[in-house]
Amino acid sequence: MLIDGEWVSATDNCWFDSYEPGTGEVWARVAAATEVDVDRAVRAADRAMHSGPWSKMTASERGEALGRLGELVGRHATVLAEAETRDTGKLIRETAGSVAYVPAFYRYYGGLADKIQGHTLPSDKPGIEIFTYREPIGVVAAIVPWNSPQMLLAVKLAPALAAGNAVVIKPSEHGSVPILELGKLVEQAGIPPGVVNIVTGHGHPVGHELTKHPLVRRVAFTGGPETARTIVRNSAENFASLSLELGGKSPQIVFPDADLDSAVNGIIGGIFGASGQSCVAGSRLYAQREIYDDLIERLVDRTKSIRLGSPLDPDSEMGPLATTEQLQRFDSFVSATPAEGGRVLVGGQRPTKPSEGWFVEPTILETHAEGIRAQSDEIFGPVLAVTTFDNEAEAIKKANASQYGLAAGVWTSAADRAHRLIRSLSAGIVWVNTYRATSPVAPFGGLRDSGGGRESGADAVYDYTSVKTAWINSSNQAVSDPFKVQ
Ligand code: NAD
Prior knowledge:
Aldehyde Dehydrogenase, Chain A, domain 1, 2 domains, 6-stranded mixed sheet, 38% helix, 21% strand
């Protein structure tokens, strides 16, 4: 682990195994932090923020350090992508693509570091000037899931550092190695010791202790809604501010005027990319009745031809699931579907090839009936639930009938319809004739059980600041005795 600029093992020298989902074998041993380690990391961050060289660096210097970190990520992209692939099972073609994009996030927030400004306010009191500063908020706990560790860390770490904070990172127990690899680059980027700390281990005790630590002032969390509920309760002890990027059950809506070839590609990529283990997976498909049979036939054909294979093989099109719990989750949803009134159109099994690793087939379920769990619950696997609609109003109603509200996809060639749908869909992100696109410039986040707060985009940097209001009496008039009538 990285605590106060030192590479250390846990105080009680405990370790846990990290498995390689492509083989099902242990490939790394990772330190299991204790309460004491978490406390040391938070205190180191607090010191680094308030009295170390970081606190004396100018905003421009912080920005330059972030730029250098981005450059180093770019230079070490091969190592970082391979670590992510081996630890999480995500395809090398996907991790190589996402890691290559990560420097753009460090550059973007590096550029914003010296543009974080307060305001001079139009005072309503003659002779009194009022203005605001934006100060760093305090120690940030960055809690990251396994499905895209580098990217989901960058959207927290980059704005937190740009604003002058120090950070304690808690990677997922299923995705620690890529983040430890990133830790090696932090010092080289000229970021002083203690500003970025990494404590590894399970939700309990590591995440738990971190989120209730009194010196943590902000928790930036990506993960599941149940974990988020615990975090909200823990952080309430200290009123730490929160951003919560949680799960999703995102609808894809296809109208008859859509370019169906393009829609098929977007739908396939939207659900089978990352083996469906993506918060924005487009896992519910609604197709207008006139095109339903044609669209489903195309999707089933394409799904049958998806090449499953080792995540390290650049020719593989879909890799394994990340954990054995994910395998069981897939099995339980798919096997329940026929009894709940649905039908398996393709997939649904564990494949015979590859014979090792945690693979499942890409799966499409027809879910016309009400109450099919695969239609309503986040599976976090390669399972697409499909059904029909008859008109625009019905499509919107069905798409919005979810406790989640992260993303939605719309496929249409009519501009007026696209605008109507964007306004009517209850989601934090709406993609029209594209899917799963992200950018450092674009806010990302959801509604209801998909969480709150937004990551990425220029405004996110302000979430890592607190406002200080300053009042100055520049009138040259002394303050009069408050108890003497004038
Ligand atoms: P998870 O909630 O199990 O774990 C996420 C992180 O929280 C891990 O680091 C874990 O160790 C930690 N954690 C667990 N218990 C904790 C506790 N009590 N206190 C503090 N931290 C604790 O989620 P996961 O299985 O790693 O990831 C899958 C979930 O993440 C899915 O629901 C998915 O949709 C969501 N996700 C959301 C986004 C988004 O941006 N909205 C992106 C990716 C994943």
